[in-house]
Amino acid sequence: MSALAQNASKNDFRDFDVNSVRSDFPILSRTVHDKPLTYLDSAASAQKPRAVIDVIRYQYEQEYANVHRGAYWLSETLTSKYEAARETVRQFINARSDREVIFTKGATEAINLVAATFGRAFNAGDEVVITGLEHHSNIVPWQILRDQCGIVLKVVPITPEGEVPLSAVEAALSSKTKLVAVAHISNALGTILPIKGIVSAAHAVGAHVLIDGCQGIVHEQVDVQDLDCDFYAFSGHKLYGPNGIGVLYGKEGILDGMQPYQGGGEMISNVTFERSEWAELPAKFEAGTPPIVPAVGLGAAIDYINEFDRAAIAAHEHDLLTYGTEQLQALNSIKLIGTAKNKAAAISFVLEGAHPHDLATILDRSGVCVRAGHHCAQPLMDSFGVTATVRASFGIYNTREEVDVLINALGRAREILC
Ligand code: C6P
Prior knowledge:
Layout: H1 3-10, H2 18-22, E1 31-32, E2 35-36, E3 38-39, H3 50-62, H4 73-93, E4 101-104, H5 107-117, E5 127-131, H6 140-149, E6 152-156, H7 166-172, E7 177-183, H8 195-204, E8 208-212, H9 216-219, H10 224-227, E9 231-235, E10 246-250, H11 252-257, E11 268-271, E12 276-278, H12 292-306, H13 310-329, E13 334-337, E14 346-351, H14 356-364, E15 368-369, E16 371-373, H15 378-383, E17 389-393, H16 400-417
Bound molecules: ligand C6P.
The site of ligand C6P has 17 residues, from helix 5.
């Protein structure tokens, strides 16, 4: 169990003032199809607190210019805020230096960056290890690399519960392993992976580790120095920040040795027609005008989260997970997909005799937003023998009452569909 989950179990979820949190999120007071909005799709993208919306609006209305390029007040002011957001991210993940925090447009771009630069140095026969529950963003970049460089892509099998035992990862490692690329938390099942053990095991055979922290950054307190991972990638939009911004954390020594991913403005120190020299980190990996206001918005989202006790958030989300799981299990014809012991706030399920898309469409008529589909994890769906599931995922603002709305709507949908 992670440290945060352990703390969470000591915290009483009733101490968490969810109604006050809800009032911070303007969209939650709207209706959909004349029903109160019940938003249970935060694993896809979280809603935004007013603090983030206000910052974005303020930047565009009052302080907008390009960054790192202007010798005038407006540009210098926004440049300071852009770099302050980097420092906010650095502190949030406890990176040693802000040279280790690269802004990207999302987790997908962050993982592709590693594949296209760090991975490009691999030789034919070198091995990259992933797991059977990865998001397509942590599968396809390695397949592209395999087709370009002849690396071998090894997949660690998952258990029928949707767990990734550390022993299974260890069994896949060898002296040929160059990189282990694993999710921190499965987006489709909610499984929390034993990433600290995975990092130690990979390092023991001389391999590096990339963690796809898209879901992990939201539900766990991430300390990259304590994890000792080499890379950690995530998106801002799941962390209550805007979309169009993501982060690649990388250890400075490793990033220093990597070639740039894209060429363009600001990633150089000198250009002639004959040759170019690269800028220092992090600029070397931030070619072109960056996602300026989204980065500042991400900083505001982290400031917002930092106002809470993370263990209290975890206790609240854990309560929703437990309550939701119990309620779903009590419904006839519902089958849970993914029953790992250590889970974060996402529940995947199927209703016998009904297609998940039909089910989600009917739930929507009750104002309930859930994701239906393969969740960009088709190989994982294959291993459970399904093409799709319905996924209810919880964020800081969800309530037990919303779980009840889901359960009641499911009862009605079952009558229509089955
Ligand atoms: N998962 C979901 O509904 P981007 O699209 O770059 O922000 O994130 C990609 C990604 C990578 N890894 C994991 C574990 C993820 O959960 C996601 C995004 C969303 O589950 C949209 S597919």
